[in-house]
Amino acid sequence: MSRNIARTNDPQFSAIAEFALNGALDIPERALKHCATLLIDTLGVAAGATVLEVGQIARDHAVEFHAAGSAANAATMLFDGRRVSLTGAAWALGTQIDNLDGHDGFAPCKGHIGAAVVPALMAFAERHSEISGPQALATMTMAYEIAARAGLSLHATVSDYHTSGAWNALGVAALGCRLERSTPEQLRHALGIAEYHGPRSQMMREIDNPTMLHDGSGMGALVGSTAALLAMRGFTGAPAITIEAPEVAHYWSDLGERWTVAENYIKPYPSCRWGHAAMDAVRHLMRTEGLTADQVEHIEVRTFDEAARLFAGMPETTTQAQYSMHFVIATMLKHGTVAPEHIEGAGLRDPDVAALIPRISAVASDHHNATFPEGRWSDVVVTTRDGRTLASGDIAARGGVDAWMSDAEVEEKFHGFCAGVLSEERAHALWAMRDRLLQPDSRIADLTELVNAPGDTA
Question: How far is CA 80 from CA 55, 56, 219, 425, 457, in A?
Answer without folding.
Answer: 10, 10, 20, 18, 12
